[in-house]
Design goal:
Elements: H1 10-23, E1 28-36, E2 42-50, E3 57-62, H2 70-81, H3 84-89, E4 95-101, H4 105-110, H5 136-145, H6 154-167, H7 169-177, H8 196-208, E5 214-227, E6 230-235, H9 240-250, H10 271-278, E7 283-292, H11 296-311, H12 317-331, H13 336-358
Parallel strand pairs: 3-4, 3-5, 5-7
Antiparallel strand pairs: 1-2, 2-4, 6-7
Length: 364
Amino acid sequence: MNLASFSDSYAEARDKFLRACEQRGLPVQSHIHPLKGRDQEVLAIDVCRAGPSDARNLMVISSGCHGVEGFCGSAIQIDLLGDERWVRCTEAPSLAVLYLHGLNPYGFSWIRRTTHENVDLNRNFLDFSRPLPDNPGYRAIDHLLLPRAWPAGIGQSARLMLFAARHGRQALQQAITRGQHSHPDGLFFSGLEPTWSNLQIRQILRQHAQRCRRIGWIDIHTGLGPNGVGERIYKGRASAADLQRGQDWWGPQVTNSFDGSSTSAQLDGTLDLAVMQECPQAQYNGLTLEYGTLPGPQVLNALRAEQWLECNPQASRTRHEQIKRQMRDAFYDNRTQWKQQVLQQAREVCDLTLAALMEPFDPR
């Protein structure tokens, strides 16, 4: 494990990723974002493929779906690319590995969870030609989550607690995080059309994932659960056979949002939907590897503060820096122990994914 795989900025992370690919002799395809980063750097979704274009089995490792969470996922990708053992194990002729670096490069650079459209990318993979799912729970509490002044007053917090007491904490989490279309300047906004990142990801899938028969996808996230613990959350179809396959691949500790076993609520418009739509020929096996950082209330307050800042750009430089620091800390623990736990658990999950993809294909 190489702790130097971690970075202090998006620009540093991208440079390390590109150099790691170059050192392996692997070409990189860059989808350039229309905007610049916080330091006027180029933003891009960088795609690196190792393995034949017609491989029957495709493993995907993606980072930065939620911008600021990319510090963790980027380090895992760079660590794997620098690991001789891992690289040798992935050289089977029936396998290709696709590294997708910085799915939401704007949020990664600007220390935001959302895209430049203020959209939660992992709620944006919807059919926008049809009526969008309603979230009346969010509409009832948006004004409490994002008051006009920050920090929020005691009254707003008390009313959020009252909502939880009346409906349950799980209902509160569902209302906040499921995704919503009613408040474009609010939290967990799902968008009213596909985002730039959504369109790029679909293009990448059409190029790289339509010739395989089986996909194993690890999407790396942070911000939920106990500190340093990588929860293995199954993503894909909700059938008994698919859920069982998830546990067969990644162990009995695999959770899911369908039966309430996960720390995550059930969400609308998640990334796995796009994979299954664009790659109907392949058996899809998806896992969200979700690392805990701070307690849930602190993470939520960091999100509320950062969204308030986005809506109030006239805030002082001191307030701006304090809120951005709080936001980064909520999704990236800079301590050595946390980083070691992250890399160790990621290697275990990636090894399990690789082993499963090397088993004979069962189309069930």
